[in-house]
Automatic annotation (TrEMBL):
Positions of transmembrane segments: 27-49
Keyword annotations from UniProtKB, A to Z: Membrane, Transmembrane, Transmembrane helix
Annotated organism of origin: Nibrella saemangeumensis
Ranges of residues in domain DUF218: 68-208
InterPro entries: Cell_Envelope_Assoc, DUF218
Pfam families: DUF218
Domain of life: Bacteria
Protein name (database record): DUF218 domain-containing protein
Length: 232
């Protein structure tokens, strides 16, 4: 018996192991390309949100146009470990100052109230009263779970179409972009920033939140909660 009749000739075809390696390399290259394109899209979205709203953000009170109503975007009063959240403190101080300077007359405090133990609007109300803002001008929005919710509810629930947004500069750009595409005439006042308060996680979160805001505005159109009820 001729043994050559039973041999397999691989001269004109890839071995199974080489085929497998080639597929793996293609997958890796495709993954790298996809990651690169995703990064480009995220950076472009961030650039456009900031660029298209920069003329509506004010850093000096004397340059800020007056509006009857302000929308204050919520954040937690404390950070992990119970330490004071300076983002919260500076937003409240900026709000009180604008009220006392006559730049705003009424204030909507919009934030998360997902349990009886976490109530951003109530915390903001207490802080502003301590700063001399009368309770009678404060309206609490308990369903501002996200910035998109806060902005849409300001128009749909509280019937406001001309507002001043109060938050830190990085946050104002996203809120203004949403306002622009939801038919709300808005300007924003930049509360004092916290240079040492930005963790890597905070920066990444905002960089991802801006493309998400664009998706919400142009494609996803999520419906906010329309009931305004405090959880006790």
């Amino acid at each position: 018996m001729n043994p050559t009749l039973y041999t397999t000739d691989y001269t004109d075809q890839e071995t199974p192991s080489r085929v497998s390696m080639r597929q793996v390399k293609r997958i890796i290259k495709g993954g790298i390309l996809l990651a690169f394109l995703t990064m480009i899209v995220i950076l472009l979205c961030n650039w456009w949100v900031v660029y298209s709203t920069k003329g509506q953000i004010f850093f000096h009170i004397n340059q800020l146009p007056s509006n009857d109503v302000a929308l204050v975007l919520g954040t937690s009063k404390h950070v992990k470990g119970g330490k004071e959240n300076l983002f919260f403190r500076y937003r409240m101080e900026a709000t009180a100052r604008l009220f006392k300077e006559g730049k705003i007359k009424y204030i909507i405090l919009s934030g998360n109230n997902d349990s009886e133990y976490y109530n951003e609007p109530s915390d903001m109300k207490k802080a502003l009263i301590k700063l001399g803002v009368p309770e009678s001008v404060l309206t609490l929005d308990y369903a501002g779970y996200r910035t998109f919710d806060s902005v849409v509810r300001c128009k749909e629930v509280f019937n406001q179409e001309n507002i001043t947004i109060i938050s830190q500069n990085f946050h104002n750009a996203r809120a203004l972009y949403i306002c622009e595409h939801e038919g709300i005439n808005a300007v924003a006042f930049a509360a004092q920033d916290v240079p040492d308060g930005y963790s890597f996680r905070t920066l990444i979160r905002e960089y991802l939140a801006r493309p998400r805001a664009m998706l919400d505005v142009h494609f996803l159109r999520p419906q906010p909660v329309y009931i305004n009820r405090e959880i006790k």
